[in-house]
Amino acid sequence: MGQPAPSTGRPTKTFGKGRVCKEPDCGTALSIYNKGKYCYLHEPIAVPRTRGRKKIA
Ligand SMILES: [Zn+2]
Q: Which of 15-19, 26-30, 43-47, 51-55 bottoms out in mean pLDDT, i.e. has the lowest?
């Protein structure tokens, strides 16, 4: 459920403000919720989308 972060209580895990994409010519500010070093455009995709096998329950 998309609740806004409460002003009190348990803080949402964040990864620091003022970070920018590691791609030299990018400079896009990273979201504090982005745990990576790159913006969404340059973030390396490590996990393949499909493995060629579907688990059918
Ligand atoms: Zn970038």
A: 51-55
